Amino acid sequence: MQKKILIIGVGPVGLSTAIGFAHAGHELICYDIDKERIDALKNGIAPFYERDLQYTLSMHADKILFTDNLKEAFQDSNIFFICVGTPIGHNNSVDMTAIWNSIDIIAKNVKHDSTIVIKSTVPIGTNKKVVHYIDKLGLKYKIGVVSNPEFLAQGTSIQDTIKATRIVIGCNTPQLRELMLNIYDKFSGEKIVTTPESAELIKYESNCYLAMRVSFVNDLAHVCDLVGADVTSVLKGVTLDPRIGTRYFEPGLGYGGSCFPKDTICFHNQIQSEYGYEQELIEATIDINSRHVLRLCRKMMDNCGGSIMNKKVSVLGMSFKKDTDDVRNSLAVNIVSYLISNGAIVSVWDLKAMENAKKIFQDSVIYANSLDEAIAASDIIFIATDWNEIVDGPLDRFCNKSVYDGRNCFLNRKEEITFNYYYVGGTISEK
Ligand SMILES: NC(=O)c1ccc[n+]([C@@H]2O[C@H](COP(=O)([O-])OP(=O)(O)OC[C@H]3O[C@@H](n4cnc5c(N)ncnc54)[C@H](O)[C@@H]3O)[C@@H](O)[C@H]2O)c1
Fold it and tell me: What angle do CA 60, 64, 68 make, to 5 degrees?
């Protein structure tokens, strides 16, 4: 009998995976311990904001059963995709609680010979540990374990899943290889079938490389500022080399979000503590990122004569990037916290993340009802997220303001800038 895919954990990764599989024609079940999340999904409502999510969810709702009931989840399924969170835990190691809880849930409820597919980002060697753990349980069903890391980026996660550039499959038997190639049959991305350890490593190396590019380009912008070079020309001159290229190479506040910060730290920690090797490039990447984020705030402080006490500052953007409402490890949060702790009166605005921002800042900031209201509230504006509404909007709305732009939104509209504009890598003074 043909069995169904069960997705365990429907956060950004689990839900995008589910929609991707439904789009490819699979019928599947999604299980989560978060009842509120499942209730929303049962009613066809996306539980968080992500571009295209609500629309694609509605398109494929008939192929996905959402449940928080274990019996219902396991009745007809025998391929379990684990998509639960793996946050940073004690001593910079990965908190694997949700992974092991998922394995235990599977072990207790499995009803057929099955396959566990680990999609969450996990330390190297996890697949082997899971195989060993399951062997020791002596279950009556045969259970294979595959590593299948996810590479989507929030904000574009649905398209990234459906049109994945590569599908990495880490497994040790021809049967598991065959099964996974079948599941991903309709996906056009190149399939890389390798060992579980290699699959686990591909995920960390990819994220660490991208994080390193972010730190490199931010360092480049800082040097431009120090020596008085024009960051736009320098970047153009550097990136026209096709070996370097422009993608993922734009100065900003640094990397944030729920993945890069923890993946760089946890991977660096694992290789150092288990293999005694210090990955200095990753260490520098982390260090540069942590020193970079508040540079524009310090510039603001200097421009205000060393104190921003009682100054009104509006922060535009709260999510860690545009097209998502996720504020986990958002650098906008670091900015707001810095401003508050230095006595500023802070107004905030975001297109989609206001509710999440309220959970963090409660009554310590003013919540603007619109972008225009946020801009009108203060003489100092800080741009923390590059929502299209900011980037493509009129620039005369910033007339007589001092704008600190952590996303370099207006560098290709320099001739329109008539206000004090401090960006990552330089300054344009009021005309
Ligand atoms: N978010 C990204 O952009 C991204 C991209 C690639 C890879 N990843 C990795 O994918 C994994 C998932 O990321 P995410 O952002 O979707 O995580 P998340 O924490 O936002 O969502 C995880 C979901 O799993 C649920 N859950 C937790 N324990 C559970 C259990 N025992 N049984 C069932 N459900 C459970 C939670 O309620 C939540 O809904 C992480 O390892 C992450 O590093 C994330």
Answer: 140
**pLDDT tens column, 115-172:** 999 999 999 999 999 999 999 999 999 999 999 999 999 999 999 999 999 999 999 9
Closest by CA to 281, choosing from 328, 216, 190, is 216
Residues of the chain with CATH 3.40.50.720: 4-194, 293-431
Q: Kindly report the pTM of this predicted structure.
A: 0.96
Residue 363 has which token pair? 């009554």
User: How far, CA to CA in Å, does 187 sit from each of 53, 161, 258?
Assistant: 19, 9, 26
226 and 295 Cβ atoms separated by less than 8 Å: no
CATH of segment(s) 293-431: 3.40.50.720
- Residue 123, CA distances (Å) to 61, 147, 264, 282 in order: 33, 11, 11, 16
Per residue in 344-380, pLDDT (tens digit) is 999 999 999 999 999 999 999 999 999 999 999 999 9
CA atoms within 13 A on the CB side of 402: 16
Site to substitute for ligand 1 among 84, 94, 156, 329, most atoms within 8 A of C-beta: 84
Q: Output the six-digit token pair for 225.
A: 């500022």
Question: What's the 295 CA to ligand 1 centre distance in angstroms?
Answer: 32
For domain 196-292, give the fold.
Answer: N-(1-d-carboxylethyl)-l-norvaline Dehydrogenase; domain 2 (1.10.1040)
